[in-house]
Amino acid sequence: MRAAATVSALEAASDGERPEVLLVDYHLGEHRETGIGLAARLQRRYPGLASVVITANHEAEIKRTTREAGMHCLLKPLKPLRLRMLLGTLLNKS
């Protein structure tokens, strides 16, 4: 598992390994990019990368956009069991 606060830190921490699952917050501070945009960029770089966008924003548009992009959306407050179940499902697919 790798954790990073910025995209450049994430890329530096990867050590050339291919990630299996990306957990990303919807609201990112970097250049007003959203977690959906970052996940889409990383999915192009790593085809098949499972992505989970986590947000406190309960707008239907965000859920629809993540679903259309082939991503998962979890709402805050995040229930640990829900996250564990989703990660188990995603990791068993890869």
Automatic annotation (TrEMBL):
| Keyword field contains Phosphoprotein | yes
Where the record annotates domain Response regulatory, the positions are 1-91
Statement: the UniProt record of this protein carries the keyword Phosphoprotein: yes
> Which keywords does UniProt give here?
Phosphoprotein
Concerning InterPro entries, the annotation shows:
CheY-like_superfamily (IPR011006), Sig_transdc_resp-reg_receiver (IPR001789)
Q: Name one GO biological process term.
A: phosphorelay signal transduction system
Any idea which residues bear 4-aspartylphosphate here? Answer: D25
Official protein name in the record: Response regulatory domain-containing protein
The organism named in the record is: Vreelandella sulfidaeris
